[in-house]
Amino acid sequence: MPKRKTQLMSVKHPKLTFSQLVSAIREADHYFSSQANRAVNVSLTLRNWIVGYYISEFELHGKDRADYGEKLLSELAKELGRAKISNCEIRQLYDYIKFYRVYPEIVRTLSAQFKPLMSGKLTIHKEIVPTASAQFSLPPDKLITGLSYSMFKLLAEIDDPLKRVFYEIESIRGNWSVRDLKRQIASLYFERSGLSKNKKKLATLTQKNVQGMDSKLTIRDPYIFEFLGIKAKEVMAESTLEAALLNKLQDFLFELGHGFCFEASQKRILIDGKHYFVDLVFYHRILKCHVLIELKVDEFNHEHLGQLNTYVSWFRKNMTKHDDNQPVGILLCTKKNHALAEYALAGMNNKLFVSKYQVELPKKKEIEKFLEATLKTIE
Length: 379
What we know:
With 379 residues, this protein is α+β, with helices and mostly antiparallel strands. The chain folds into two domains: 24-228, no CATH class; 238-378, Trna Endonuclease, Chain: A, domain 1, CATH 3.40.1350. Strands 1-2-3-4-5 form a five-stranded mixed beta sheet, with helices on both faces. The chain is built from 15 helices and five strands.
């Protein structure tokens, strides 16, 4: 039997230059990085939506919900922390609930692999009221693939459905980053568009000035690192660093022996229908007043001080008893090896009180020295 001759078919390959080789690899890397980033973002978004759904349903129909009441989220955050479930601190749980309630239509994007997570445990509502009129709303699958969870978090804070849809459309159309969206909301792009006679020109100018979403930068978001269970040495999530600093700060204040009595961590307060959280609340038994502490893992800006002043004013109006003195706030800002402490004395014009507070409260330099030393040990 004659031997079969194996012929190798010659395939003509294009002859690449070195620069074309680099370009081709860069294009492939960008494409697959974008695909991976999109898949992770979608998974994180759906996971957070489902968490919000579960909690909302438990609050309405849970068998033992009455046993928890106002403490539900604090207890849940503790249990999830013990189970090492990432991104489930009390503030984040509130965000997930709001996300679910603002975007209930996302249930339609759940694929068959996600449905078992919901069926058999909690009942999915058959009728879902859309967040804006059908004339303007984007399909939920387009929202999920076009927006990251961090962007949904910003959008959920917008009460006006039309305004929210406007930013959804512009974000997707311009491939905005979280920073772009935050900047455009802060610069009142929606309101300026309503007042502008040439809306198309304004939109063109706005889209030209945006930074745009970079897939490699987005995948480094601490939310995603924690979600994937990756412990990156070069990245520490802001929430993780804040928690570590606040724990040590609490011990530091007790060691000073100035009369600090711990009252609450992440104290929830309601202002104009929105929930805010004060990092640490103490009652000072010598000064007979509340001391509010806000920590920002960021450099100082006047917005931080304004926020703390708002909290101090709220406490003065809602929490101060007839024999209490005025509350005081302490703002702590950190950026790498630099630390800054500022005091908020909202509405306090009595020099005697101010002088008394300066004696009894820890000195600014003392706190700054503690923060810088603690940052070095944590990092």
